[in-house]
Amino acid sequence: MTAARIIETNEGIQSEVTAEIFDEFAKGMRDKGWNGVAEMMASGINGGDILEIGPGPGYVGLELAKQVNPRSFTGCEISPAMIRIAEKNAREYGIPARYVQGNGMNMPFEDDTFDGVVSNGSLHEWENPVQVFNEIYRVLRMGGRYCITDMRRDIGFLKKYMIYFSTKPKEIRPGFLSSLYASYTQEEMQKLLNSSRLKGGVVVKDFMGLSITGEKH
């Protein structure tokens, strides 16, 4: 039986020191290819104006932008510390990304602004996922696609500790566990998605996580 969710945080990583440590971790995840970019491309997100929710240090969106060459790339991030790191990383990638401070539940964008919306590893922190899903629907253009990837807490004991002991730097390991315990199962997420304006979307589970994909109709 899967244990109940334990809410982690809805404030993101605000500390400069913690943000720097997370940047090192995220870079390692990028290098391993454990970042959801393949799923995002497979979902049909292939250019136009793209929004990333919760980009953190930015590697996921920057890797995606490097592959699909969007017309514009925007990140909506709650943490000023993370925005500073993401802006630095974007400069190093040579990608003209724009990062805006905001909460996914009330994003500072006009209706029908983006052709694609992506997010990796932040879903478990969303205070109200249904409200964020409704915001995604609002800011997407008709026919626009979305792909949201995250961990799932029912991965099982062996997978959990395999990932735990391979996580570097080791300072991140307690945060990995708290994030895992705050994540959703496939059944929970499908129910939340179906109660939002994105109710036509599909939730698929893989080795260690969930992928939520669909199109605005």
Automatic annotation (TrEMBL):
<dbReference type="InterPro" id="IPR029063">
    <property type="entry name" value="SAM-dependent_MTases_sf"/>
</dbReference>
<dbReference type="GO" id="GO:0032259">
    <property type="term" value="P:methylation"/>
</dbReference>
<dbReference type="InterPro" id="IPR013216">
    <property type="entry name" value="Methyltransf_11"/>
</dbReference>
<keyword id="KW-0808">Transferase</keyword>
<keyword id="KW-0489">Methyltransferase</keyword>
<feature type="domain" description="Methyltransferase type 11">
    <location>
        <begin position="51"/>
        <end position="148"/>
    </location>
</feature>
<dbReference type="GO" id="GO:0008757">
    <property type="term" value="F:S-adenosylmethionine-dependent methyltransferase activity"/>
</dbReference>
<keyword id="KW-0830">Ubiquinone</keyword>
<protein>
    <submittedName>
        <fullName>Ubiquinone/menaquinone biosynthesis C-methylase UbiE</fullName>
    </submittedName>
</protein>
<dbReference type="Pfam" id="PF08241">
    <property type="entry name" value="Methyltransf_11"/>
</dbReference>
